[in-house]
Amino acid sequence: MGERLRLAVGVIGNAASVLLYAAPILTFSRVIRKKSTEEFSCVPYIIALLNCLLYTWYGLPVVSHRWENLPLITTNGLGILLEFSFIFIYFWFASDGGKMKVAVSVTTVIIGFCTTAIISALAFHDHHHRKVFVGSVGLVVSVAMYGSPLVVVKQVILTKSVEFMPFYLSFFSFLGSSCWMTYGILSHDLFLAAPNLVGSPLGILQLMLYCKYRKRGIIEEPNKWDTEKNDEKSKHLQLVINDSISGKS
After folding, report:
1. Looking at the structure, do residues 151 and 234 belong to the same domain, yes or no?
2. Same domain, 20 and 82
3. Closest CA to 112 of 89, 83, 141, 139
4. Along the chain (249 residues), what's the average pLDDT of each consecutive run of 10 residues?
5. Which of 137, 107, 154, 126 is nearest to 63 (CA)?
6. Count of domains for the chain
7. Is residue 152 within 8 Å of 160, Cβ to Cβ?
8. In this structure, what DSSP letter does residue 178 have?
């Protein structure tokens, strides 16, 4: 019964994590449409990429015992593809300075992951110590991932607008962390449960912040057609005024 419950929670966690990793699709459809990254931050996606890389490695038989953590591999493997796609789109539409920051950050992430993977594979010779090492690194990165949307909190509070703090990213972050926390507890795996014990409260905080400022609305750019119409009306009104002045004189 316990094993079936653990598997069921793992499947739910898989679904929640897929939704978390897919949530930025709405954000990046806007980036593509406007051909600009605006005030969006790439930090959450870069940290999420590192998280996916680490936990895919953690779930593989090199670190875990056989295929005991198969749900980790499937969801984080898909996450790697999605995060790479989002980062590429961000890079494509970012300014020159933004491109440089993204390139440096992604390079650092890749080097960090490769270093962790090589050390865990060569320096440790049993699953237990490999899990402790990779899990410890993954724990820190997971906490950073769940808290990364907070990088825009200052902007949200100052502008009293949640335009650049995507709701679905915060919502699925909370949902996914809650599921994986439960999965980790049922699996008696501290390195799966611990980061999500932090991730769930952070997700709640982000949702509370969103609910507080969502009524302020999202700042929309004026419609080009409406602007052109207003310009035409202004020109017409000016002509009428000029004609009236000419007639009186």
Report:
1. no
2. yes
3. 141
4. 74 80 84 86 87 90 82 86 94 91 94 94 88 88 75 73 73 82 83 80 82 64 44 51 51
5. 126
6. 2
7. no
8. H
